[in-house]
Every structure is written in C-alpha cells, then in structure tokens.
Amino acid sequence: MTAVLADPDEAVADIPDGATVLIGGFGPAGQPIELIDALRRHGAGDLTVVNNNAGNGDTGLAALLATGNVRKIICSFPRQTDSWVFDGLYRSGRIELELVPQGNLAERMRAAGAGIGAFFCPTGVGTPLAEGKEQRTIDGREYVLEYPIKGDFALIKAQRGDEVGNLVYRKTARNFGPVMAAAATTTVAQVTEVVPAGGLDPEAVVTPGIYVDRLVTA
Predict the structure, then answer these.
(1) What was the pLDDT predicted at 1?
(2) Phi, psi at residue 15, to the nearest 5°?
C-alpha cells in the first residue's frame, strides 16, 4: 500500500549515503522542489543523481548539488546559462558527469522498469559517447549497447494522486516521472492534492499506484 505522508522530510528520511536517486523534471517543469529540499536537509552523501538537467540557478537540484553531497550526476543537459553551481563543481573536479542523450536517458530508465537487460540504440554511434561500448551492425545500421538505469529512490512530482498511489500529471510536468517511478525500488511522489481511492478517472491515470510507495502533499 502507498503511504500518504504530510511531511517531505519524513518521505526521504531513509535515503542512505551512496544511493542512486532519480529526480524528475525538465528544468524547473515537474521538478519536485520540496522533496529535493528535504533531501538536502536530510544530508545523505555520496549520491548519484539522475536528472535531465544539472540544476538551474541556486534552488532545487542546484541547491542540492551545492551541498557537495552528490558524487555523480547522470544527465542530458548539464550546461545552461544558469547552471553555475554545476559548472563550478565540475571544473574543480568535485562532481562526476555521465552525459547521456535525452532519448537514451529516458529509454534506459524505461528499460529498467520493464525488466529489459540491455538494448541496442543508434544514438551516439561515432561519437565519444559510444567509446568503450559494444557495437553491432543490425540490418545495415550501426548500434551501440546501452544498459538500464535503475534507481534506489525516485523523487517525482505529479498534479494529483489518490490514496492508493495512482498519479495524474499536469501537461509537460509529466516528463520523466512515469519512467522514473517504474525504474526505482522506492518511489516518492510529491502532489498538490490527494483524493480518495476512486477519485481519479482511471482513463486519466498515467502512473499506476503499484509503482508509488509514498505520497506527500506539498
């Protein structure tokens, strides 16, 4: 059963040092700010964070990176005009970066949730991103082998959830939430409202409650 909590700090209190944490959001859109802030207060270190970006400005994910508790980030777009926190950490050698094309990032997490051991993809062939990876010619085209990205925890944001964890999202704030929820051992969803079971139109549910372990209103 999904636990419905009122406190973001309680929702992330058991994230240990060394965990891999999948964090939703495409820039600020769909970023679970309150859960990220709670993780920052919690103080777990040596984290690997998976996100589309590497933080914006000084809030949310950027504030988490600034603590120095993130050892590695796996993302598609590490640099924007306001990514000065990540830039400073990376240039000084205080954070590792694994750069993954956006489609590959989504598919690697989707593969984890679907129980797929690995898959071949053409993206990255002939670039430094394919160095050291197995390659194969399939039907006359070159492909590179990619492995799933699994999370110990996923922190995602949805618009509404019901008491058994079913989620609906607000437009593009959905982004990586559904694949992250399925790819993590423990999924924590931040929502604006929790409704009784049966209060969501089942045809509108995007993430089934079976993938959601904790709900917190924020």
Answers:
(1) 79
(2) -70, 120
